[in-house]
Amino acid sequence: MMVPVSTTLTLNVNGVNRTATVSDTGMPLLWVLRDILGLTGTKYGCGIEICGACTVLVNGQAEKSCVMDVGSAVGKPIMTVEGLAVDPDGQKAQAAWIANQVPQCGYCQPGMLMVTVGAMKAGHHGASIGSENSNVCVCGTYQRINQAVQGL
Amino acid sequence: MSGSVDRRAVLTGAAATALVIPVAVVATRNAATLAVASTSGTATASTTQPPGAALGAYLQIDSANNVKLFIGPSEMGQGIMTGLGQLVAEELMLNWSQLSVEHATATAASPNPFANPMFGAQITGGSTSIRGWYIPLRTAAAKARDMLFAAAEAATPGGGWQLASGGKVTNGVTTFNFSDLVAAAAKLTPPSSVTLATTRNVIGKRLHRTDIPAKVDGSAVFGIDVQIPGMVFASVIHCPTSGGIVASMPSSQNGATLINLGDAVGVIATNTWSAMNAAQSLASAIKWTLPTNLASRDSVQILATAQSLLTSTTVTPRIYESVGGIDPAAALGQATTKIDATYNLPYLAHACMEVLNCTAVVTPTSAEIWAPTQGQAMCFPTIMGITGLPASAISVHTTYLGGGLGRKIEQDYISQAVKIAKQIGKPVKLVWSRKQDFQNDKYRPCASIRVQAGADAAGNITALLYRNVSPSINIQRNTTPGNNPEDTGAVAGAVGLPYAIANRRIEFVPNPADIPLGYWRSVGESYNTFAVESAIDELALAMGKDPVALRRSLLTSANPRLLGVLNAVDKLSGWSTTAPPKGSARGVAILSGFGSYIGLVAEISGSATSIRVNKMFCAIDCGVAINPDSIEAQVQGGIAHGLSAALWGQVTFASGIPNVTNFSNYRVLRRAEMPAVSVAIVPSTEAPGGVGETGVPCVAPAVANAFAKLTGVRVRTLPFFPGATMSDG
Known about the structure:
The structure holds two protein chains of two kinds. Chain A is an alpha+beta fold.
């Protein structure tokens, strides 16, 4: 039996320093956010960096948090869907999502929004934002995502 | 869940300023019984709603005149909160911004006021929520309106009360907010009959969905997001072979507590990741007892059985429809044009974005769950069976569903969470891994369908012999030995065809396969419509007729609405007027189902080995369109779902072991592959029809028909491209 060795890390999430005690610094950022910090907006979808439901921004770049060791996120600003409302790009994306009535079940949308905001921060506009996005939406909201990014 | 009840009204516990009007939704024999129970006794949220109404949905009006509607159907993306909210807002002249909608907590109330009136049970499925609630919920709201009028009259006699927009009652002299009247109104006996609003200020409008703001800021609580103080995290591992049960298992793994769940092992840990890892690492440490007949869980064997049954003359088929005075087999003999085609469709997974999960708290005297469930009605017997508690001790909280698609009507994951919570005596959140979710689905049945049809020299279709061989959901779920239930759902989409076909026989032969089956968005139509609409197309080609023109000629005056959508999609797509772009081809399919009518035209380009679905044109007649934007969204989504299945969807089993493990080997449509979908909603004043499933069944045949036109190759076996994979984009 493994003996868990706890490590306390400091993560900067949405501009706030948060401490998280983990038994393994290889624990994916996704589960630290969800199960330890209680930030459940970031979603588990596939666990193998395909579906993108877990996407967050680390250092302003879209990352799939389901495969990102939490240790590698220490010292870097992390933005989750909960932080969009206080980010100018995030606000624009949220407004576009509402104006175009994008979500159906909504489960994948935090990831869709984070990919979009990551693309905006990388200098993309309009359709080129969409080209960054290969996240999976089983509801099929893609057409509205394509519409929503047009104005961004 | 005890305490005295005021029969007509209750101040809710946590929100003591909010008053509740219980309103009779379903006009039953005992309209005076508006009892409500006290609030939930647990330390968790959801105390804003008084559970246990004997009748009626609840409208809650707070002191700021905000109106809250509690609903029975589960919001899984179809927009039901918004649709039902619009019905109430129309009747009560509410401003859209003053209305909020929440899931009701399901309790043991009998009759259950949140049971879908179409089923008499609280189940979300079959595209029935708007159909079931359209009149009952408006009636409930209209009763509330009349009770508010009566309360106004009692306060200030004078008569002439009517609604004013924004939740007000006025007679031109005196004006009340609903909130001024709700306490008095709640003490009144609901009227036995009411007049429904004839205005259409809200119904038919493209109002913004009530649930979307929470779905763009991370605050929407899906089942997987539920957090209960003191909860532990759990995951499961099932036998890698379908149908296996635990023979022996270790008592712990990497410090995680293990629980024998019969056909799975539950793993308890301090976070979901640890629980999933421990579960996966158990695979070789658990000994499983495999089912004896693995051939019945092997795709090759199952397909071989199906092919044999398709042509068997000794098996006795179940004849689910027989029309015409001549045996279709004899009529076929006289036909001048004939087709004999066999279509094969695979098992499919649901692949909801949100994996199966359930949070449970079980004490010696109560049980409470929070779950993304479509089947509240079934949760009660599930929980009662495990805990031995009476229904009155059980609460079922419905969260948002990260997709339901029929999978979340099932009880396996509910049952597991309740068993674990009972055994460990702590709140537990159970979350399946994606691999467990894919490998332990209740799969859409595979189906093999033989269609023999013929036409006479005059172009009349004179014969249709249709045999569906597929595993039966109903038979598999039969728990009474010796009972052999019917399963007409297996031929849904094949019986009652709208076409003028003189002599037809629709047969069903159950395939005795043991792969676990479930209800997959559009259920029987998801395979029968592929066979029917492909066969009609094949017949058109054999007869030298245009596929739209042939369908039009076969639709009788008894089917004006289906003819209407066919004509509408003809116009929308330019089928009869404009040739498709060079290198493209179109295919059509139509369906009368779920109380609605739909016509679909697919426009595709490419080759036999690679196609692109560029455009989808859809006309739908779903009766009164409550929210056209939601309808369009459901059609767009149904098309995406249907395309994923048609192009790539397939689960195969090797002696019971499923081939799929994740999205990596169960490819689904992605953004760049989404066709441009155009939707025409045919105006109608008929009662609302279903929309959630309606968009799915025509996709595969429309694409196959376009593919035949484009390439000359007829695809009769789905998916188009088996074995497709998907990687990080």
